[in-house]
Design a protein that fits this description.
Length: 56
Amino acid sequence: MACAADSCIQFTRHASDVLLNLNRLRSRDIFTDVMILVNRQQFRAHKTVLMACRCN
């Protein structure tokens, strides 16, 4: 994408920053919308992250 040098913002770590912040939200149980139960242990998660990681 072309842009003027003074108005261009580059996000070189965007993907890793998004995952880091989603994990921080999950660990604080913020915006989690699904619970997974494994061997009687509960794990809160974000549906969108689970869907993005699913096998095709």
